[in-house]
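Sequence in, structure out.
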Amino acid sequence: DEDALDVVASTWAVDAPQEAIGEIAALPDPELRDQLMQAALAGLADDDPQLAWTEAAQMSDPEYVEDVRSMALETLAATDPRTAIALAETAGSTEAMLGGIARGWADSDLPAARKWLAEMPDRELAGRLAEEISDYDEDE
């Protein structure tokens, strides 16, 4: 069952990240390797977003890479939004990545996240990202 494998990969990555990443990277089937690497790194993104970001480059599916990097940026932005922004810029600052930053930053400092969006040059993108965090509450 694929879901069970994903849970195992995610848990393994949190418990022993280097071992899990190394073993998954050595799998011969590229689809299975990407699927399990995505699950592993998604699990790791909360604990070590920098490692999840870096290791995402191993995956061949660009959607998986972007998905993991968005999750990593969301975690990182909650405590270090400027580093998250700088990382996103190194990979093209996709909307998914910037959305991760907006959500993570809004979780920890909603006014600052809104200010960042208000200063974003691409007003259409800023509007879509602002919509993503529109239900966040400043009192939480």
